[in-house]
Amino acid sequence: MRLLILCLLIYLGYRAVKTFGGPGKPSAQPAMPADLMPVDDIMVKDPACGIYIPRKDGIRETIGGETCYFCSVACREKYLEKAGKASGQA
Prior knowledge:
rod-shaped
């Protein structure tokens, strides 16, 4: 009988700690609707090879007042070389 009462007290103590002492349940719904959540990043097209990359991961270069994003240093160099030849600089 003592064992049964002890088990009951342990269980009630566990439930009390869990209810009042533990962190709250995580919400099943997001804080904001999906259509109002801010965009994490924007995809931009690499002008040298034509693939789309996240703007935050791109290599940024300002060329003639225009900001371009490249997927790699090699693509940036290739584009700059092509732009130099087109403008008459060798």
